[in-house]
């Protein structure tokens, strides 16, 4: 297995090279297309990388990637599966490309939210809708004898 090259992008201006020792590949039978060979070839590829212990990321990059990909991680391990193709070689390339893209996107710093104010018309529409809803609900009230609410 060879090292994984991540193209330059925000958060990694010179790009990254993830050593082959930090990557783990597993192969299994794919449930996808394959004809008669579907039950005989291990074409599914699972590419894993422990983001917490890799030597390719700095401490800041590691923290940013783990924060951004927290929902995809098992502990600190990122696993990508590929079953798109009938060929194991093509699935290996697909998994490596997808992992590189995911890590490059996770390294990008978050874009700060630009604060905006609602327009005067949208505030007026919201308040009008609330007023109409309030009137509708007030018509549902049971009138009590002796009170002149309506």
From TrEMBL:
Q: Quote the PANTHER family the UniProt record gives.
A: PEPTIDYL-TRNA HYDROLASE ARFB
A Pfam family that this protein carries is RF-1
The UniProt entry, under NCBIfam families, shows: PRK09256.1 (NF006718)
SUPFAM superfamilies, per database record: Release factor (SSF75620)
Stretches the record annotates as Disordered: 102-150
Superkingdom per UniProt: Bacteria
Q: Where is the composition biased (Basic residues)?
A: 112-150
Which residue range or ranges hold the Prokaryotic-type class I peptide chain release factors domain?
Answer: 16-140
- The protein in question is named Ribosome-associated protein
């Amino acid at each position: 297995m060879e090292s994984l090259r991540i193209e330059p992008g925000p958060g990694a201006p010179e790009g990254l090279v993830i050593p082959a020792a930090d990557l783990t590949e597993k192969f299994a039978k794919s449930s996808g297309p394959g004809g008669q060979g579907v039950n005989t070839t291990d074409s599914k590829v699972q590419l894993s990388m422990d983001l917490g212990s890799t030597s390719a990321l700095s401490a800041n990059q590691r923290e940013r990637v783990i924060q951004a990909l927290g929902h995809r991680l098992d502990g600190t391990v990122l696993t990508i599966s590929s079953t798109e193709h009938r060929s194991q070689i093509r699935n290996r390339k697909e998994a490596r490309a997808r992992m590189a893209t995911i890590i490059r996107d996770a390294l990008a710093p978050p874009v700060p939210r630009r604060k905006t104010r609602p327009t005067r018309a949208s505030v007026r529409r919201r308040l009008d809708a609330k007023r109409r809803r309030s009137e509708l609900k007030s018509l549902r009230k049971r009138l009590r004898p002796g009170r002149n609410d309506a």
